[in-house]
# Entry
Amino acid sequence: MSKAPKVSKRGAIPPFFVMEVMRAAAEREAAGLEVLHMEVGQPSTGAPKGVLEAAHRMLDADVLGYTGALGIPALRAAIAGWYRERYKVEVPERRVVVTTGSSGAFQLGFLAAFDPGDRVAMASPSYPAYRHTLTAIGVEPVELPTGPEHRFQPTIELLERLDPPIQGLIVASPANPTGTMLSREELTALAAWCDAKGVRLVSDEIYHGLTYGQEAVTAAEVSDSALVVNSFSKYFSMTGWRLGWMIVPDDLIRSVECLAQNLFISAPSLSQAAAVAAFGCTEELDGHVARYARNRDVLLRELPKAGFDKLAPADGAFYIYADVTEMTDDSEAFCKRILAETGIACTPGIDFDPARGHRFVRFSFAGSEETIAEAARRLIAWKR
# Structure
């Protein structure tokens, strides 16, 4: 009798439930039924015009080979210039690493900074891939239960309660799924706490640029030891181009480079070359942000009329995180019901908070104004 080959336990992690919702929505559409997409954090717009023009030129003139593992010099320089112009902070080009999306950045950063058995803290609720990626590489995710009283963000008080100690802390401002942000003072205090404790700070900044009344602060401004992760997928509206970047502290640059060489070789060369033009497209991109702001206003005004009256502040990003305790204690079944009865796809909170997410739902307002307005009308009618 033959013996079954080994199957690694690394893949024994929970699914990314939003992808499950996307699949159910696609099946509904394939059956000829309408879907209003509020489940995925993806701009409904494509890449800006300047990026598309640069890509066409590249396709006509270049063989699209490998690049250096850390990225092409022109893009690394453009990213450093973005920090200089937008944040007034000098970031040496040698510390800029171009990655295959922010997902590639997190993989490289986690592998370079942490060893199996280390403990890395993060707010709960938070982006599920933090937990799942850390678990897959043998690092223990440590969730900090946060609520409205913490504005769904980690605090030093919560960190001081942890025992045994942690080796890393992930912060996200604006955060997914809540949209809440850390002030300059709060981020500075967390960075100082990490430096004093020898804890590696990882700052997820992929929703920078998508803020409503409060400017986002980069950890590159307040800490030289932080790993800063950003992406072209959100503000720059280039989700499918699979391109992100990291600002890497000096003590991790060589580790990240060797890991990138072996795991990815390089980020896509076409995406890299075209993305240089993205930094000159801010007028077009800020127009998208203005639309998100209008969508946000619609949902903050209309969702309470549908019974969704306990909402996270949504300072940034393009999400509304709603407490639905009075409607259900099974957010997954609740979202399936909403999709079946209204055609609106939204994401159950269990994706972001395994312990308490059964009482929460996330709505994305990254879609068109028509989609968001119609979804609000349907939810109000459904509730009645």
Q: What stands out?
A: The first strand starts at residue 36 and ends at 37. DSSP finds twelve helices and twelve strands in the chain. The longest helix spans residues 282-302. The mean pLDDT is 96.
